[in-house]
UniProtKB/TrEMBL annotation, chain A:
One of its GO terms (molecular function) is oxidoreductase activity. The keyword Ribonucleoprotein does not apply. SMART domains: CO_deh_flav_C. It comes from the Bacteria. Pfam families: CO_deh_flav_C, FAD_binding_5. Keywords: FAD, Flavoprotein. The keyword Flavoprotein applies. PANTHER family: ALDEHYDE OXIDOREDUCTASE FAD-BINDING SUBUNIT PAOB, XANTHINE DEHYDROGENASE SUBUNIT C-RELATED. This is Xanthine dehydrogenase family protein subunit M. Residues 1-221 form the FAD-binding PCMH-type domain. It comes from Allopontixanthobacter confluentis.
Automatic annotation (TrEMBL), chain B:
It comes from the Bacteria. It comes from Allopontixanthobacter confluentis. InterPro entries: Ald_Oxase/Xan_DH_a/b (IPR000674), Ald_Oxase/Xan_DH_a/b_sf (IPR036856), Ald_Oxase/xanthine_DH-like (IPR016208), AldOxase/xan_DH_MoCoBD1 (IPR008274), AldOxase/xan_DH_MoCoBD2 (IPR046867), AldOxase/xan_DH_Mopterin-bd_sf (IPR037165). One of its GO terms (molecular function) is oxidoreductase activity. Residues 38-143 form the Aldehyde oxidase/xanthine dehydrogenase a/b hammerhead domain. Gene3D superfamilies: Aldehyde oxidase/xanthine dehydrogenase, a/b hammerhead (3.90.1170.50), Aldehyde oxidase/xanthine dehydrogenase, molybdopterin binding domain (3.30.365.10). Pfam families: Ald_Xan_dh_C (PF01315), MoCoBD_1 (PF02738), MoCoBD_2 (PF20256). This is Molybdopterin-dependent oxidoreductase.
Length: 327, 732
């Protein structure tokens, strides 16, 4: 671990200025960043602790809820309003990590968590994300966890989280304070980036940006399902996950907001799937067509080929669950 | 005085059944448990020594080649850095269990990715770790490293069995199977990482380390350091799990020792979790071929079990995959053989239940397929194939409770012996199924000594270098002494894990309780004998209970008899002819119920029953805990655990507990353990056998069989991860 300075930000503007410094990084719960620092994957010269900022509440806003960037995952998942109106979010959070980690993990930190690619976390391996231009160890190596959608020849890593997949299905918005005092909002669906030629860039944050909150839109009716496929029943990242909000009237689907985890460098949202499903009657054939759309451009890398049939089945399972169809 | 017991004949006196205290076998809580759960048990890295320096190992980022030079200057001006140790005594590998000599040294020659090549020593841990990452060295990487066991040169292990004509038996059989299995590498994944603090006072080297077998480790360390054994002291009073990974002296121990001697200050070396995974023992991956031939009654006529395993060049250990296959079932035509491929992955060595852990699941899965072909209930098939004598050696078995375990386990589990067609039971989107497997693990013992002192105040002190790796040694040695000397266990103080005490074989191969327990027993018998002679009583007429001696109708407090003097005896247990005269093994049976998700292939174990015959149960609670722990390992090896190696440079990719998937609490269902009543006088004079490993010898097979019974997916590759289950799942 490289020696580093530690600063505690007292006010938001202060935090922005501190973080804007090259070599400075924000720290919230630290559950991801500290691990990476010990492995010398991240080597910030200064840690800017956001802990004292007043970003730790969940408040009603614009008919929905604003979840502060520092609210812990445990508190979010336990919030009565979230459990009642956005059960998808509570379920997704509870499907991730462990209780101890969730007690520390925050909204902002969770959105920004880095990939779990084995080569990214091992500094003796090539990795374009960690060390641009060094190559990608995973493409020819162990790509079991890796992406099948939206990959590039530079990087095939996944965004590993669960919370953001639910937020993506919910069409939530990330609120960001810029280092220069400006503020802006970015839909969760656009927050994470595909790897392309710049896998080192995982999201739209610029130097000095700080996530202040995530805004959930007003609640909608329908079944909310989060389905995570994993090797063990807890404390494992998704091989594939599906977040689904599905409503029906008279046997016809009237709403279908879906997002997928474990398949791409970002929570995956394909608007065509919703368009296909809305107005149709639930059937296994329909769900298969939805999977055709999802997997149209899917590409496996050997080790992760299994994700293609698995995603198809997980999607069908989630839609059966949400629509009450039995297979 | 030393009392020797040479085990040339079975000891069927069952002395512990005739003693009066009544604590042997009782489920007494471990005496050190409170220390552990309150953080007051001091583990190797936790001792506070003044002026202690911190060392961090530097490891090779390539799998084969030569380190030409190490540039100490590249880090010497970094804050806190004291020295880069490149001494030729540093060890490249951990010693194999019972090696009794230094493991491979000359760290400049690299044979696997992650091999230690130097130690950076600094004032603080963070400084040492940072400098270790920055150390520059020049190396030449060879291009001929081999990572694929199938592509490597291999040798056949000695001791293969060839008997009769298996090919012919397969042709003649009424039912037969010829199946190929694979298992992936496993890590011990003990909670406490390998760690040492070495101190050198100019004459004697004292090392606190996390090790399982001090009596061997002291020789290994002395040999590596070029010191006389008398100038070395090792201490491991508490070990946070070993599972085989701490059998031999590890690289941290030698590195800390070299540094302490060179620098004249105490030096601590703690391996990172990644280093533990990358540089300590792995269990070899295996590929196995099982051939079973049976007649119309399901009696085996042919038995073939062949395996390919791997190790580094010049390592003697070969995962003994067929160890229990040698004798578990009959069949006069036999082929049992192990081949070792030489590859550039870190050392393969003992990981809990070496051999049976991977051989038994494959055998038991093959037995399930044979049962299906023969149309015989799988419990019944096993019962029909229990041999009279060792099938190739002809030796008699010592006590063996396999049939009892199968029957009692089946009854407790509620085994349905009706027709077994897959997909008979379903709950929602889950297929439910059941499976059975036998358990077997060879019984081992080793020469052991222990000192027992009956103090003048009537309490007792037990001292041996035996370790407690979380298994319950403190508990059972206290119970044996308390039972024999007639006092509650609270009156017995047990001191372990220090080479200044009489030595024993340590913990490993499930032999600790039977070996060190017997040494304590022998010492106590000698003490009781001396009391009898002080009283002029016949030894068999003396009863000791609650501090009172009774004989010939008289009673007297033991403290009075002692009259201010203590009695000290060293018990010396030496294995003898019984080892060759009998085939001794622990046996059992597993029953598992699983649910397999129709959509995703995710498999969850819903309940498990294990019935085990382990000879005399010394402590019902710690024995049961060992079995439970073993069954948890069954779940891991059946469903999740697998070391993943990069095909390009051979490095281990999933080198932490987030990505190497041992079962979590939620994966572990209700588990039932039945300990079948048994005494085995050929196994040890306390009639106890090994229990530490048996619980994981075959159970993964029961889970595999249950997966098939649930959903019709017949898999031959462990672990049975969702992707593999889905690929094998028949179409709906
Ligand atoms: C073993 C393990 C298993 C896990 N399993 C799962 C799982 O199954 N599913 C899952 O979803 N997650 C899982 N996680 C990840 C966990 O959810 C994240 O570590 C956690 O959410 C990160 O939050 P944090 O507050 O601790 O972030 P930190 O570690 O403090 O920060 C992470 C990153 O976010 C940046 N950051 C933090 N806050 C802000 C902010 N307000 N504005 C801008 N940047 C910010 C930091 O600079 C840093 O780069 C697991 C983690 C571990 C260690
Ligand atoms: S997949 Fe991405 S993160 Fe992984 S090694 Fe390749 S470039 Fe690095």
């Amino acid at each position: 671990m490289k020696p580093f300075d530690y600063q505690r930000a007292e006010r938001l503007e202060h935090a922005g200025q501190l973080v804007a410094d090259s070599g400075a990084m924000a720290i919230a719960g630290g559950t991801n960043l500290l691990d990476l620092m010990k492995l010398q994957v991240e080597t910030p010269a200064t840690l800017v602790d956001l802990g004292a900022l007043p970003l730790d509440t969940i408040a009603e806003a614009d008919g929905g809820l604003r979840i502060g960037a520092l609210v812990t995952n445990t508190l979010t998942a336990a919030d009565a309003r979230i459990r009642g109106e956005y059960p998808l979010l509570a379920r997704a959070i509870l499907a991730g990590a462990t209780q101890q980690l969730r007690n520390k993990a925050t909204t902002g930190g969770n959105l920004c968590q880095r990939t779990r690619c084995y080569y990214f976390t091992n500094i003796d391996q090539p990795c374009n994300k960690r060390d641009p231009g060094s190559g990608c160890g995973a493409i020819k190596g162990i790509a079991r966890l890796h992406a099948i959608l939206g990959t590039s020849d530079q990087c095939i890593a996944t965004y590993p989280g669960d919370m953001a997949v639910a937020m993506c299905a919910l069409d939530a918005t990330v609120e960001i304070a810029g280092g220069d005092g400006s503020t802006r909002s970015v839909p969760v669906r656009d927050f994470h980036l595909l790897p392309g030629d710049t896998p080192q860039r995982e999201n739209v944050l610029e130097d000095g940006d700080i996530i202040t909150a995530v805004l959930l839109p007003p609640p909608v009716s329908g079944q909310q399902i989060y389905r995570k496929v994993r090797e063990r029943s807890s404390y494992a990242f998704a091989m594939c996950s599906v977040a689904a909000i599905v409503d029906q009237a008279d046997g016809t689907i009237t709403r279908a907001d879906l997002a997928f985890g474990g398949l791409a460098h970002k929570p995956w949202h394909d608007p065509r799937i919703g368009e296909l499903l809305v107005g149709a009657k639930p059937s296994l054939t329909l769900f298969d067509k939805a999977a055709d759309l999802l997997l149209e451009n899917a590409q496996g890398y050997g080790e992760n080929d299994y994700k293609i049939p698995l995603a198809r089945r997980a999607l069908a399972a989630a839609l059966c669950d949400a629509t009450g169809l039995t297979a | 005085m030393t009392a020797l017991f040479k085990h040339d004949k079975p000891d069927n006196r069952n002395v512990l059944d005739h003693t009066a205290q009544g604590i042997i076998g009782q489920p007494l809580t471990r005496p050190e448990g409170i220390l552990k759960v309150t953080g007051n048990a001091t583990y190797a890295a936790e001792y506070a020594f003044d002026e202690c320096l911190e060392g961090v190992l530097v490891t090779a980022p390539f799998a084969k080649g030569q380190v030409n030079s190490i540039d100490e200057k590249s880090v010497s001006s970094m804050p806190g850095v004291i020295k880069v140790i490149t001494d030729k005594r540093l060890t490249a590998r951990a010693a194999q269990g019972t090696a009794n000599e230094a493991p491979k040294q000359n760290v400049c020659e690299v044979h696997y990715w992650g091999q230690p090549i130097a130690l950076v020593v600094a004032e603080t841990f963070e400084q040492a770790r940072d400098a270790a990452k920055h150390l520059k060295f020049d190396y030449t990487e060879d291009t001929d490293a081999i990572f694929d066991p199938e592509a490597a040169d291999s040798e056949t292990e000695d001791g293969a069995t060839q008997q009769g004509d298996l090919a012919h038996a397969m042709k003649q059989a009424d039912a037969s199977v010829d199946l190929h299995y694979s298992t992936e590498g496993h890590a011990s994944a003990a909670m406490e990482p390998h760690a040492s603090i070495a101190q050198w006072d100019g004459d004697t080297l004292t090392v606190h380390a996390s090790l399982q077998m001090l009596n061997y480790n002291i020789t290994e360390l002395a040999d590596a350091m070029g010191l006389k054994e008398g100038k070395v002291r090792l201490l491991s009073p508490f070990v946070g799990g070993g599972f085989g990974s701490k059998l031999g002296v590890s690289q941290d121990v030698v590195a800390a020792s070299v540094a302490a001697m060179e620098l004249g200050r105490p030096v601590r070396v703690v391996m990172s979790r990644q280093q533990v995974f990358q540089t300590i023992m792995r269990r070899s991956e295996t590929t196995q071929r099982l051939r079973l031939a049976a007649d119309a009654d399901g009696k085996l006529t042919g038995f073939g079990h062949e395996a390919l395993v791997s190790n580094l060049p010049n390592e003697e250990f070969a995962e003994p995959v067929t160890q229990s296959s040698e004798f578990l079932y009959g069949g006069e035509n036999r082929v049992l053989q192990i081949e070792v491929a030489r590859i550039n992955r870190m050392t393969a060595g003992s990981v809990r239940a070496p051999g049976e852990a991977v051989g038994m699941p494959a055998l038991e899965a093959a037995m399930d397929e044979l049962a299906e072909k023969a149309g015989i209930d799988p419990v019944e098939l096993r019962l029909r194939n229990i041999p009279e004598v060792h099938p190739s050696e002809g030796t008699p078995f010592s006590s063996r409770k396999l049939a009892e375990c199968l029957k009692e386990g089946a009854a407790k589990f509620g085994w349905d012996s009706g027709p077994r067609t897959p997909r008979m039971q379903r709950e929602g989107e889950w297929w439910i199924g059941t499976g059975v497997a036998s358990a077997a693990r060879v019984h081992n013992v080793g020469e052991a000594k222990a000192r027992v002192t009956l103090q003048a105040d009537g309490t007792a002190l037990v001292q041996t270098d035996m370790t407690d790796i979380g298994t319950g040694t403190y508990a059972i040695l206290g119970q044996i002494a308390g039972e024999m000397l007639g006092m509650s266990r609270d009156d017995v103080l047990v001191e372990l894990g220090d080479t200044k005490h009489p030595r024993g074989p340590g913990s490993g191969g499930s032999w600790g309780a039977a070996s060190s327990g017997s040494a304590v027993f022998v010492a106590c018998e000698a003490i009781a004998e001396e009391i009898a002679s002080l009283l002029g009583a016949a030894k068999d007429d003396l009863t000791l209970k609650d501090g009172i001696a009774s004989w010939g109708g008289q009673t007297r407090p033991v403290t009075e008899i002692l009259d201010g003097k203590a009695i000290t005896k060293i018990g010396h247990y030496e294995p003898g002819d019984t080892e060759d005269d009998y085939a001794a093994s622990s046996y059992g049976a597993f029953f598992a119920e699983v649910a397999v998700n129709q959509w995703t292939g995710e498999t969850r174990v819903r309940r498990m029953t294990g019935a085990f015959g382990i000879g005399r149960v010394l402590n019902e609670k710690t024995a049961r805990s060992q079995c439970l722990g073993g069954m948890v390992w069954c779940i891991g090896s059946a469903l999740t655990e697998s070391l993943l190696f990069d095909p390009v440079d051979g490095h281990l990719v999933n080198c932490d507990l987030a990505e190497y998937h041992v079962p979590v609490h939620r994966d572990v269902p209700d588990m039932d353990v039945i300990l079948v009543e048994e005494r085995d006088g050929a196994a040890s004079p306390i009639q106890a056998k090994g229990v530490g490993e048996l619980g994981m010898c075959g159970g993964a097979g029961a889970i595999a069989n249950a997966i098939y019974n649930a959903c019709g997916a017949r898999l031959h590759d462990f672990p049975m991860t969702p992707d593999r289950v889905l690929a094998a799942m028949p179409a709906d």
